[in-house]
């Protein structure tokens, strides 16, 4: 919803890193990913391009399952496909970096081969969060 007279409008050059840990039902899209899409949509509603903002999403904890390939997701959760992948693909097309914590994968007994090709496996989610903040990204909790 464009609000041209509201304070604090989106502006070029912003950097945001989203910490996504919340679980979702197997047939639902993770709300953290929807939160990322919402921020991107705010920039679009203000007339800016996706390239005018840098966004990274880091999934770990219970959110880890959101990045599984359709095959791995179906095998683990008896679902037809991973409902998160269409949104992850759209976010990637818009320039959003999507990471999953390698430590969470290991702890939940997922293999790196189970991760969808659009997602980058990081050594640890906390490292991405730390590195991005050192690079000037604002931290958002999307739990």
Summarize the structure.
The protein has 143 residues and is of the alpha/beta class. The protein has five helices and five strands; from the N terminus they run βαβααβαβαβ. β3, α4 (102-107) and β4 (120-122) form a beta-alpha-beta unit.
Structure in words:
By secondary structure, the chain is α/β, with parallel strands linked by helices. Helix content is 34%, strand content 18%. The protein is built from 5 helices and 5 strands; from the N terminus they run βαβααβαβαβ. The radius of gyration is 15 Å and the shape is globular. 33% of the residues are buried. The model has no long low-confidence stretch (mean pLDDT 95).
Helix- and strand-based class? alpha/beta
Number of helices: 5
State the total count of DSSP E strands: 5
The overall average pLDDT, rounded, is 95
Largest sheet data: 5 strands, parallel
Catalogue the unreliable spans. Answer: none
The helix fraction, in percent, is 25-40%
Helix/strand order, N-terminal first: EHEHHEHEHE
């Amino acid at each position: 919803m464009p609000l041209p007279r509201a304070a604090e409008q989106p502006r070029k050059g912003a950097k945001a890193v989203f910490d996504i840990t919340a679980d979702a039902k197997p047939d639902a899209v993770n709300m953290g990913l929807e939160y990322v899409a919402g921020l991107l949509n705010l920039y679009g509603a203000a007339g800016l391009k996706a390239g005018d903002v840098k966004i990274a999403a880091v999934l770990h904890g219970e959110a880890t399952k959101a990045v599984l390939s359709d095959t791995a997701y179906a095998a683990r959760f008896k679902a037809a496909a991973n409902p998160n992948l269409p949104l992850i693909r759209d976010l990637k097309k818009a320039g959003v970096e999507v990471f999953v914590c390698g430590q969470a994968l290991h702890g939940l007994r997922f293999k790196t081969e189970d991760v969808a090709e659009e997602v980058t496996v990081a050594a640890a989610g906390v490292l991405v969060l730390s590195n991005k903040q050192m690079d000037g990204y604002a931290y958002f909790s999307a739990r």
